[in-house]
């Protein structure tokens, strides 16, 4: 019988599944704008925590309505990344799996903050490709700068954020 591996003490006990929406329009990416006291001003992909019994696509649709006020059509899974995030409230890190899906919004969509935004979210916008260095976590900058991400590996490894 295989011995169960011990969890490193610097991590929380659960792995968080987090679907994210990668929504491109021309050379722009639809993102959440955030301001954080320690992390400063940055942008993230819409998406969030999967609830027990909820499918990844259902989670992503719910999160997009809550955060960016838009219904999305969820397409192909284009990347999976492991993120080890330091949460400011505890000394433990959050082990998170980000599942990035290629998504679309209605062509008439205009960026708004949804009815239940993320903490620290101050806006929603179409981010131009020349500002990709402000995206978080770090793997998103690679996705955006690559352009057509469907030709690249799906699993990107782990990133600290």
TrEMBL record:
Domain Nudix hydrolase: start-end pairs: 13-150
Keyword set, alphabetical order: Hydrolase
Gene3D superfamilies registered for this protein in UniProt: Nucleoside Triphosphate Pyrophosphohydrolase
Name used for this protein in its record: ADP-ribose pyrophosphatase YjhB, NUDIX family
Cofactor(s) for this UniProt protein: Mg(2+)
InterPro entries according to UniProt: NUDIX_hydrolase-like_dom_sf, NUDIX_hydrolase_dom
Species of provenance: Roseibium denhamense
């Amino acid at each position: 019988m295989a011995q169960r591996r011990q969890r490193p003490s610097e991590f929380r006990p659960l792995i968080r599944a987090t679907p994210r929406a990668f929504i491109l329009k021309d050379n722009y990416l639809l993102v959440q704008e955030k301001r954080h006291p320690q992390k400063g001003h940055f942008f993230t992909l819409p998406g969030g925590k999967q609830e027990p019994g909820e499918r990844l696509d259902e989670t992503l649709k719910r999160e997009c309505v809550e955060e960016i006020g838009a219904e999305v059509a969820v397409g192909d899974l284009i990347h999976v990344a492991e993120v080890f995030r330091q949460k400011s409230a505890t000394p433990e890190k959050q082990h998170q799996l980000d599942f990035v899906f290629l998504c679309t919004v209605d062509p008439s969509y205009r960026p708004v903050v949804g009815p239940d935004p993320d903490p620290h979210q101050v806006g929603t916008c179409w981010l131009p490709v020349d500002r990709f260095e402000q995206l978080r976590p770090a793997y998103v900058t690679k996705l955006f700068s690559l352009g057509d991400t469907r030709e690249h590996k799906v699993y990107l490894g782990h990133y600290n954020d």
